[in-house]
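With this grant's support, we have settled on a layout for protein records. A representative record follows, to show the layout.
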Amino acid sequence: MRSILILLSLFLGFQIAGAQYIKEKIANDATGGLGQIDEKRFTWGYYLGLNSYDYKFDYDEVTEDIFVETSMGFNVGLVGDVKINNYINLRLEPGISFVTRTLNFEDPSFTMPGDFLREVTSTYINVPLLVKFSTKRLNNWKPFVIGGASWSRNLSSKEESPIDNSEGQFRQVTNVFNYELGFGIDFYLYYFKFTPSIRGVFAINDELVRDADPSSPYTGNISSMLSRGIFLNFTFQ
C-alpha cells in the first residue's frame, strides 16, 4: 500500500511538472471522427490484463510466516463509464480474474513432502465501483487516479466442502469485499481511447475457512488471511 502511494505521488508530480513544457498538438477524438469521446455522458469498453495476487497473514501467536509463492494471472472484463464533469467519472468494471498461489507451511509435525504445500487456485468474478479523477487533457493523453470498492465472488473457494487440509484441500470464503486504488494514463487515438493502468486490490474481510481441528497446523494459528493483488490492465474504449 505504501509503495503504491509513493509511486502515485511521483507519477502525478512528474505529470504536473512536465505539462508546462508540452506544445499543443492536433487532438484526436478517439471515435474515428464521430465527435470527442470525452463529450459523451456514457461510454463503454473492455479491458485485458495481468494480475499478481498474494496473501497477508496475521497470527494469533508468533510463528514462522507462511510463504506465498505467486504466479502471473489473467484478467478480462467490461467497462461502463458515466461522466460526472470534465475531471470526475464514475465507472463500473465487472470482470473475471484467474489466480494461482502456492502456500508453503512450516511445521515440525509434517513428515511427507506434500504436507508443506497447498496450491490455491481462485477464479474471481470482480465487480468494482470506482471513481476516476483526471487531470486536464494534455494533447492526446490524460493522467488520472482511480479508487473505490469492489465485491468478488470466488468460484473456486470450496467454502461448503467438508474436506479440509487433513485431506489435502485448502478452503476460502466465497464472497470477498475489497478496496482498490490505482493510476493510469488515457491515450487518445483516432478510433479509440487506449488506457494502461496499475491498480492495487486489497481484501477487507477474512477469507480463511478453518479446518475442523482447532489445532490444525494449517489454520489453527491464523487470525486473518487477506488477499492483496496488483492489476496491470489495458482498457479500450
Q: What stands out?
A: Residues 28-236 form a domain with the Porin fold (CATH 2.40.160.20).
